[in-house]
Amino acid sequence: MSKFLDLLRSGEDIDCDLIIGGVDMPASFVWNGDSKITDYGVEKYKAIMESKYTKLPNGNIEIHCDDDKLGESFCWAAAGHIGTSEYTRIFGED
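RESULT FIELD:
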């Protein structure tokens, strides 16, 4: 089982719900081969990025990180529900 950051950097397309800290996250997670996360984003969400994960039979992903509040912040950010400048700091330029 590898870390969630390894999955993000694998180039695999992802479109599912995430479970972090045993909690279903409030926004679906979409990631594709063109998606990226900056060093700032990796550091900001370090606990999630370094956590192991499990792909569930229903296609969703459970990230084995106890910090559901950080998970919620990450999911909202990935869905674009944050300011443009912070989004760019986390995920880079398009």
